[in-house]
Write a structure and sequence with these properties.
Blueprint lengths: L1 H11 L4 H12 L13 H4 L7 H16 L9 H9 L6 H11 L2 H18 L5 H9 L7 H26 L1
Amino acid sequence: MSVEFVDYLLRITGEDNYARNKCIYTLRKGVGRDLGTVYEMDAYLGMWYPKSKHGRDVVCMVGALFGFHPVNSNTGDMGKHLRLVSLSNENGAAQNSLLKLIDADFIELWGRLCHSFRLIKKVGVPVNYEQLYLDLMSWNHFERYIQKRWSRSYCENVKQQEVNTEEKEND
């Protein structure tokens, strides 16, 4: 379902300017608001709501965040995206944001994601919405493998940057 949901978001925002702007404006209204309280979003997201409250919350999150920053990528996860933000000299804000995200339970996650997306949008980093959807659907897994992967992804990019810096210094 995730692939179809993200394809749907990309398709409806790729239409003519009026329809695109109306959709993005409506979805963006959900950012920072309690999940499920912006009923206008149902016109775009309602057919994608799963039966579970958790699934409905994830669809609302991804839809609202897409409306706020409709720039899609086909690679990466939040760890990589925040690492790209940190390369733009955000004074540690991206790392702090990641630490707060991976420490959050599902209830706290929405507010922290909104903060992270403000940083991501400011720098203009594209987001892999399909991966975000899948990650949020599995957020509560007892092994916390999503949180671990985001952390590794952030740190792997740091290690690669350090290797590149050392290679330049040795030349």
